[in-house]
Write a structure and sequence with these properties.
The chain is about 40% helix and about 20% strand. It is an alpha/beta fold and about 475 residues long.
């Protein structure tokens, strides 16, 4: 069974993430490429540091080779944005990345990228699922790895320099060099250490790295940059007076930031900071794109500068598509992924990190000071987030209640309207909102609420909890 969610195909290692399913996915991609007559330029596949990632990449490469499709395999663990960059720059029809991104260590998976370096959309992933469902396992062949290399059907590559040079050309390295910044880096046992450290040292930053060894269990924590998982980085920034602490998730497409005061910056804050910086300090013009569960503070900043903020469903493919449609400056989501106009069409934690470093250098101000400026100009807002596990039966009950019967709890604030574009989102007339939606990558239901006051956001989450029987 191959089933894609919002972040690709993900499965528990040893359960559904097994060699036969991995090669089934590869065979489905081969059949799809042949049916579309898109085998001429081949495909590139990369992998992160998770258990079985490298082997999974090679198993897929052997299937592509057996089908006569030339395959570029990245021969060292690499960040997901590197693969997206390569697909776009070299105009490949498809690329694949073996990763489960920020999921727990027991998961692995595969992301698929389409022409232009974009995340495969729902239409594309549905087609892949359909191709996979029609395959007889006995028809899946594989070529010996060394033989495939000898015949040129598998080529090992490591295009890191191309990717890094692209970022160096996009940021103000001169200003960063002049600033002499001190940066604490936490790759969270993932793949960002080499690319980020190379960029930062090239920019003459003073860099100290923690959690840089290879650990497929990610130190026993989620490889997701959150306030709870970055306590070590917070301590390092505060104890040694770093200008910024930067962390990335397992495959480096998401970013976490600790500011100069030791405060964890929510991904929402990072998006707001970068949009504000690009428009106010760099003079860019254009809209911002966010998903339904991302801060409306972006709407406030956009309004201040006479720009638009567009809302899309969760899934970065929707962000990148809307950005292209409206030529937006920046797009992102509250889970930590973002991209900027002129860069790749997907999330890139490494580029985002360098842009934040540039922001400090160009403005000559600390991150905490810049955010205070934003709140002084646009006002403040507070978000409460909660995650809940559920049984299959409970999921059906909640879906029926919210999405079919479209029932809501009694809420103490006047409702403006309700959207069912992605989950159930209630918009209040005071500018606040609350959403309940099922995660597309983990068996969780998430409730997000944003209100002018913290106590009100907490109160609304608790009302929804009780209404849905989650506590």
């Amino acid at each position: 069974m191959i089933k894609f969610g919002t972040g690709g195909w993900r499965a528990v290692i040893g359960d559904e993430f097994i060699k036969s399913n991995i090669q089934l996915l590869a065979k489905a991609m081969c059949n799809k490429m042949k049916a579309e007559n898109k085998t001429g330029k081949g495909i590139i596949i990369g992998y992160d540091k998770r258990f079985l990632s490298k082997e999974a990449m090679q198993w897929m490469g052997q299937v592509f080779a057996a089908e006569g499709i030339e395959t570029l395999l990245v021969n060292k663990s690499a960040p997901t944005p590197l693969l997206m960059f390569y697909v776009e720059k070299h105009e490949l029809p498809y690329g694949m990345m073996v990763t489960a991104s920020h999921n727990p260590a027991i998961y692995n998976g595969v992301k698929v990228f389409t022409y232009g370096g974009r995340d495969a959309d729902e239409h594309q992933t549905k087609e892949i699922e359909d191709y996979a469902s029609k395959i007889n396992p006995d028809d899946i062949k594989e070529m010996d790895y060394e033989e495939a290399k000898k015949e040129g059907l598998i080529k090992e590559v490591y295009p890191l320099n191309e990717y890094l040079d692209n970022i160096i050309a996009a940021v103000d390295m001169k200003k960063i060099k002049e600033a002499g910044l001190r940066v604490a880096l936490d790759p969270m046992y993932g793949v960002s250490e080499i690319p980020l450290k190379t960029l930062l040292l090239t920019a003459r930053c003073d860099v100290e790295t923690i959690h840089d060894r290879h650990d497929t269990l990610f130190g026993g924590k989620l490889p997701s940059p959150t306030a709870s998982t970055l306590r070590g980085l917070i301590t390092r920034v505060m104890d040694y007076n770093f200008d910024i602490g930067i962390a990335t998730d397992g495959d480096a497409d998401r970013i976490g930031v600790i500011d100069d005061t030791g405060r964890f910056l929510h991904p929402n804050d990072i998006l707001v900071l970068l949009y504000y910086y690009l428009v106010k300090y760099k003079g860019w013009h254009g809209a911002v794109v966010r998903n339904v569960a991302t801060t409306h503070m972006l709407d406030k900043v956009a309004k201040k500068f006479g720009e638009e903020c567009y809302e899309v469903p969760v899934g970065f493919k929707y962000i990148s598509a809307k950005m292209t449609e409206v030529n937006a400056v920046i797009g992102g989501e509250s889970s930590g992924g973002l991209t900027v106009r002129g860069h790749i069409n997907g999330k890139d934690g490494i580029y985002a990190a360098m842009l934040l470093i540039e922001m400090i250098a160009v403005t000559g101000r600390k991150i905490s000071e810049i955010y205070k400026d934003i709140e002084a100009e646009c006002g403040s807002i507070y978000m409460e987030e909660r995650d809940y596990k559920f049984s299959p039966q409970k999921k059906e009950e909640i879906h029926e209640l919210l999405m079919i019967e479209k029932k809501l709890p009694e809420l103490p604030y006047e409702i403006d309207h309700v959207s069912y574009m992605d989950g159930c989102k209630v918009y209040f007339k005071n500018g606040g909102w609350v959403i309940g939606r099922f995660s597309g990558t983990e068996p969780l239901i998430r409730i997000f609420c944003e209100m002018p006051e913290k106590d009100d956001a907490i109160k609304v989450c608790e009302i929804f909890e009780k209404f849905l029987g989650l506590k």
